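Protocol step 4 of 6: structure prediction from sequence.
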Amino acid sequence: MTQAPNPPLPWIAERLLVLRQCVCDALASTHAGPTCWCGIWPGSEVSWEFCGECSGGRCGMGFVRLDGMYTSSGFPLPDENPTCRGPLAYSVEVGALRCLPVADEDGALPDEGALLDSALALTDDALALRQAIDCCFGGTLHAMGEWSAVGPQGGCVGGSWSVIVGQH
């Protein structure tokens, strides 16, 4: 019995796969280096459990997440009266989380230099993610939203970009 071939991936799925690779490569080239986990995250919120330390002194996670979709004949705005054949626009979140220095077992706060390094790494990650988005979506209709910081939470801190992607 022969197995039927898999149907082709939807257009947005292919774009997310390309963006994932660009994001992982961009984060690996930052001062903080590669993350422990980098990929496409399902669902409405990214789990911060993947942001811990791992081998090789690495820490954190990079992610691409499909946040929503809507019909948009006048990209990037949603249609007020959508039709069944209207072009779609996709809301995508692209982000990174990194470990944050925390107090030690005796309650001593991390030194200012460690916190400064963490703040600079966040800036470096934000710029690397922006470049990944612009380079990977070159030729693809997209509108950059703003970068938003998140955390600290559970020893991690980070941020993400919102991006609207449209099919020509």
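Step 5 (inspection) to follow. The chain has one domain: 11-166.
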